[in-house]
Amino acid sequence: MNDQINEPIEVIASFKKDGLIPHSFSWRRKIYKIDKVHLVHTSQAGRALIYHFSVTDAANYFQLAFNPFNLSWVLETVYSEG
Fold first, then answer.
1. DSSP code of 47?
2. Of 29, 50, 60, 80, which has the highest C-beta tally within 10 A?
3. Pairwise CA distance, residues 78 & 82, whole Å
4. Coil, strand, or helix at residue 71?
5. Cα–chain-centroid distance for residue 75?
6. CA 15, CA 6: separation in Å to the nearest integer?
7. Are 22 and 64 in contact (CB under 8 A)?
8. Residue 48 and residue 36 in contact, taking contact as beta carbons nearer than 8 Å
9. CA distance 19 to 17
10. DSSP code at position 58
11. Closest residue by Cα to residue 64 from 72, 56, 75
């Protein structure tokens, strides 16, 4: 199942020399622990360079977006079985 969400989320992430790494996020009063970051790519939105992260937890695949211009995160898409 593929659901377009596009809702703001809160993310715990770290900045390392290799870049930004999301560790977990909160969405609809639930915390999701990120097991793996599979892909990172960028897109342009006006003056901001948006960073897109394809991540998984134990059961689902998510697409997150980070806007460094306003320091906001968005849950773009959720893919889940069932």
1. T
2. 50
3. 12
4. coil
5. 6
6. 24
7. yes
8. no
9. 5
10. S
11. 75
Q: How many CB atoms lie within 10 A of CB 24?
A: 14
Query: CA 50, CA 35: separation in Å to the nearest integer?
Result: 22
User: In which element (H, E) is residue 77 found?
Assistant: strand 72-80
Could you tell me the two tokens for 45?
Answer: 């939105």
Chain segment 1-38, per-residue pLDDT in tens: 789 999 999 999 999 998 999 999 999 999 999 999 99
Q: Which helix (H) or strand (E) holds 39?
A: strand 36-45
Confidence of residue 82 (pLDDT cuts 50, 70, 90): low
Domain around 11: 2-80
Note every long-range contact of 46-53, with CB atoms under 8 Å and residues 24 or more positions apart, other chains counting: 51/20, 52/76, 53/22
CB 50 within 8 A of CB 63: no
Domains identified in the chain, total number = 1
Please give the torsion angle defined by the CA atoms of residues 21, 26, 30 and 31, in that order, rounded to the nearest 10 degrees: 30
